[in-house]
């Protein structure tokens, strides 16, 4: 483990996988994700080993070995975190974001406040762009912040999964009896950061090209054919408003992806050999 302290005083922990000379990519995880999440580790290792990339797999603030800003949840702060990480790990890097982490990666690249971003991969950012699917309540943060402040972690997990992610209640109830529940509770307070990233873009409204005009670096949006309509619609919608983006949908992929299927297009795009 390595770590940096940002100008704002946040400690960011990360693992560095050195694969070769094909450039650097920073992995940006989504809700409940952290750098030791097995699929994040597998993705980092495969990108390094098979595509000669240097991979920075970090804990976003509030999870894993990184510190937090309790009660302060603002996407601009997480963009600053990414800027500090890019600077500290060589000055230039691509971003690979997963779920709400994809939203964060896209917003960071569009902000113009992170020098050195070379490319972006967005794997299934959960934008909600119409009212045909699940639309979270705009005031969801009021209950979420209250539950977090009271350290009711199990309730936070259930609330965020059902009210922000739209997962069926019976499915979430069963998850309480799985080995993953402990890690979900450990990262539960960080969901307030995920909502700070995504909340304004989950209101059932079309994405506006003007909001994304600053994202001019090459961008690959990836979705899975086995994912729900909401995520597949979101992938097409963000691709349509980005100045320099293409979209690929992988037939056998889901939001809980098979890393062996996800890695090839990602690795080829990052290494400059993608031709699809």
Automatic annotation (TrEMBL):
<dbReference type="InterPro" id="IPR050471">
    <property type="entry name" value="AB_hydrolase"/>
</dbReference>
<protein>
    <submittedName>
        <fullName>Alpha/beta fold hydrolase</fullName>
    </submittedName>
</protein>
<feature type="domain" description="AB hydrolase-1">
    <location>
        <begin position="25"/>
        <end position="259"/>
    </location>
</feature>
<keyword id="KW-0378">Hydrolase</keyword>
<dbReference type="GO" id="GO:0016787">
    <property type="term" value="F:hydrolase activity"/>
</dbReference>
<dbReference type="Pfam" id="PF12697">
    <property type="entry name" value="Abhydrolase_6"/>
</dbReference>
<dbReference type="InterPro" id="IPR029058">
    <property type="entry name" value="AB_hydrolase_fold"/>
</dbReference>
<dbReference type="InterPro" id="IPR000073">
    <property type="entry name" value="AB_hydrolase_1"/>
</dbReference>
């Amino acid at each position: 483990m390595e770590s940096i302290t940002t100008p704002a005083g946040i400690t960011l922990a990360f693992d560095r996988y050195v694969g070769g000379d094909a450039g650097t990519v920073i992995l940006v995880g989504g809700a409940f994700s952290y750098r030791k999440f097995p699929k994040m580790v597998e993705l980092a290792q495969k990108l390094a080993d098979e595509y000669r990339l240097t991979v920075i797999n970090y804990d976003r603030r509030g999870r894993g070995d990184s510190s937090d800003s309790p009660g302060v949840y603002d996407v601009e702060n997480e963009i600053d975190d990414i800027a500090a990480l890019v600077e500290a790990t060589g000055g230039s890097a691509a971003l690979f974001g997963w779920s709400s982490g994809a939203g964060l990666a896209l917003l960071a690249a569009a902000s113009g406040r992170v020098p050195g971003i070379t490319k972006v991969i967005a794997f299934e950012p959960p934008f909600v762009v119409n009212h045909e699917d699940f639309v979270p309540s705009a005031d969801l943060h009021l209950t979420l912040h209250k539950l977090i402040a009271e350290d009711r972690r199990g309730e936070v997990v259930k609330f965020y999964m059902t009210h922000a992610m739209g997962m069926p209640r019976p499915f979430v109830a069963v998850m309480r009896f799985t080995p993953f529940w402990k890690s979900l509770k450990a990262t539960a307070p960080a969901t307030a950061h995920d909502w700070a990233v995504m909340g304004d873009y989950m209101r059932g409204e079309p994405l506006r090209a003007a909001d994304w005009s600053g994202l001019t670096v090459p961008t690959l949006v990836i979705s899975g054919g086995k994912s729900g309509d909401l995520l597949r619609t979101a992938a097409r919608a963000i691709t349509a408003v980005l100045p320099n983006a293409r979209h690929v949908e992988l037939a056998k992929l889901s939001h809980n992806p098979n890393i062996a299927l996800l890695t090839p297009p990602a690795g080829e795009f990052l290494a400059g050999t993608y031709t699809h």
